[in-house]
Amino acid sequence: MSVLKKPLITEKMTKTSEKLGQYGFIVDQNANKVQIKKAVEKMYNVTVDSVNTLIVASKRKTRYTKTGFVSGSTGTYKKAVVTLKKGDTIDFYSNI
Which of 59, 65, 40, 60 is CA-nearest to residue 51? Predict the structure, then answer.
């Protein structure tokens, strides 16, 4: 089981990372804050100050198509916002 699934690279998270040194990740539903902290420190070689987690609820989506209404829902996922020690940064674009 890998704790970190993927980093959140959005305009809002980019702005937050530049100002406050916080980075967002989509993580495994069963992962706790200690596991997330260890995984980020191991993968990116940084020092983690704190970890905040939240579970993003699913949303109902409906759209109209030629064959009629199609309804479904987005998935539920767990998000972690990791605050790094002053001076540490993570560069997600370095290996592109």
Answer: 40
Using CA of residue 11, residue 15, residue 21, residue 92, what is the dihedral sign? positive
Per-position DSSP letters for 15-61, written without gaps between them: HHHHHH-EEEEEE-TT--HHHHHHHHHHHH---EEEEEEEEEPP-EE
pTM over 0.90: no
Q: What is the pLDDT of residues 47-90, one digit of tens each?
A: 999 999 999 999 999 999 999 999 999 999 999 999 999 888 88
Q: Which two tokens stand for residue 23?
A: 């980075």
Select from 3.50.90.10, 3.30.70.330, 1.20.1270.10, 3.40.50.300 the CATH code of 4-84: 3.30.70.330
pLDDT score recorded for residue 91: 82
Give the Cα separation of 95 and 30 in Å (integer). 29
